[in-house]
Design a protein that fits this description.
About 35% of the residues lie in helices and about 30% in strands. By secondary structure, the protein is α/β, with parallel strands linked by helices. It folds into 2 domains: about 220 residues, Rossmann fold (3-Layer(aba) Sandwich), CATH 3.40.50; about 80 residues, Alpha-Beta Plaits. The chain has a 6-stranded mixed β-sheet, with helices on both faces. α3 crosses α4 and α3 runs parallel beside α5. The protein is globular, with a radius of gyration of 23 Å.
């Protein structure tokens, strides 16, 4: 079943067209990533899905329900965690979450049963009776996710969910979302943390200049990347780059550190290490100089 289906969606602000013929399908149980520049109008598309912004043309269905024909039913399937905090800062954490359960018709006793396990998974249980204004930015972000999940939506939309969250808490949040997705919650994510999205998401759409320019699974998309950048640490210093490495487009970053850009159809990592070893250059460490999706995204949008 399709969790979300968008057909020929357009949005204009006066004469300014910001979304053009958007077609997108997200299958039930996907962990889907929507990638685009800050000015790519991703958030506008999300607000159209939730009927906070009116589209000019097109059709949006959520689990088979057209938002123009039965929005109350369609809305019951979803919740959006927006970029901005949008709760009463003087309310207690407990009340913020439970009030959302009430709004969606969840029995109060059932909501209370769900509350503590949910807060515990998001490291908020000890803040249950605190007012939200006393929380850090990362805690407020996790509170928004707890509020979103109390009615157990079938489609969770996360718009930059890890903003203001430190590295350790971000990892725990991702672990939680992975487990949530395994429990049959479909997730639509926008984020600037490309390395995390590469690990988490199984489907990716790229939106650029009002249009979706790519929509496929992660493996197929990454197969379009023909070159790879790596950083090579060596056990000894170099005075100059050996001529034999020219085919790898080497750059001497430090006296014992090289950046290489190689054709993945021509070389493997093992072959590169073997070549360096032939030059009596012993490799002590290898790492990617940038995230693979970042390289691909820049390549696909640089001329736009």
């Amino acid at each position: 079943m399709k969790a979300l289906k968008i057909e020929n969606l357009t949005k204009n602000y006066g004469k300014n067209q910001v979304l053009r013929n958007i077609n997108l399908e997200i299958q039930q149980w996907d962990f889907f990533w929507l990638l685009g520049h800050n000015w790519a109008w991703k958030t506008t598309m999300i607000w159209i899905i939730t009927d906070l912004v009116k589209k000019n043309t097109g059709k949006v269905e959520i689990f088979g329900t057209d938002i123009d024909l039965n929005f109350p039913l369609a809305k019951s399937y979803i919740w959006v965690v927006p970029q901005e905090f949008n709760f009463d800062i003087f309310m207690k954490v407990e009340d913020i979450v439970l009030s959302n359960a009430w709004f969606y018709g969840v029995d109060l006793n059932e909501a209370r049963k769900r509350l503590d396990p949910l807060l515990e998974k998001l490291n908020l249980l000890d803040k249950k009776y605190s007012t939200s204004r006393m929380l850090s930015g990362g805690m407020k972000r996790r509170l928004m996710i707890a509020r979103a999940l109390i009615h157990q939506p079938k489609l969770l939309i996360l718009d930059e969910p890890t903003a203001w969250v430190d590295v350790e808490l971000r990892k725990s949040m991702w672990d939680f979302l992975i487990e949530l997705n395994k429990q049959w919650t479909t997730i639509l994510l926008t984020t600037h943390y490309l390395e995390e999205a590469e690990q988490l998401c199984n489907k990716i759409a790229i939106i650029n200049k009002w249009e979706i320019i790519e929509n496929t699974d992660k493996k197929t998309l990454l197969s379009k990347l023909k070159t790879q950048d790596i950083i090579v640490d060596l056990s000894q210093d170099l005075q100059k780059i050996p001529n034999w490495l020219e085919d790898l487009n080497p750059i001497l970053i430090e006296s014992n550190r090289l950046q290489l850009n190689y054709d993945m159809e021509k070389y493997s990592i093992n072959e590169i290490v073997w070549l360096l070893d032939k030059l009596w250059l012993r490799v002590t460490n290898l790492s990617n100089s940038s995230n693979r999706l970042e390289q691909l995204f820049i390549k696909m949008t640089k001329d736009e």
